[in-house]
Amino acid sequence: MKPNEIKIDPKTGMVKTTHGVSLDVNPDTVSKFGGACRIDSLPDGLRIIQRGSRAEHYEIVPAYNMPLDQFQKLLNQIIVSPGK
Question: How far is it, in rounded angstroms, from Cα 44 to Cα 42?
Fold first, then answer.
């Protein structure tokens, strides 16, 4: 997770549900970042939303406002396999 990918509510210190870790459904777009992976399992507490003007761009965001350490723990629980 890059620091600028998420938004923290300055009043509560919680990670907001509006921004998260970027995803893209186009393998060619992510090849410069190490290639594509398939998400096999997403833990409860996270969700994937389409974000931005490109229909292929998505983000993994918290399902509800949560502390940063909880968000990171949930991100660490995502199960992926090599993409095609």
Answer: 7
| Per-domain residue ranges of the chain | 3-82
Q: Using CA atoms, how far apart are residues 47 and 60, in angstroms rounded to an integer?
A: 6
Asked whether the predicted pLDDT for residue 63 surpasses 90, the reply is yes
pTM as predicted:
0.88
The owner of tokens 């229909």 is 55
**pLDDT per residue over 26-38, tens digit each?**
888 888 777 788 8
Q: Where are the beta strands (DSSP E) in 12-53?
A: 21-24, 37-41, 46-50
Inter-CA distances, 66 with 20, 30, 40, 76, Å: 12, 28, 23, 15
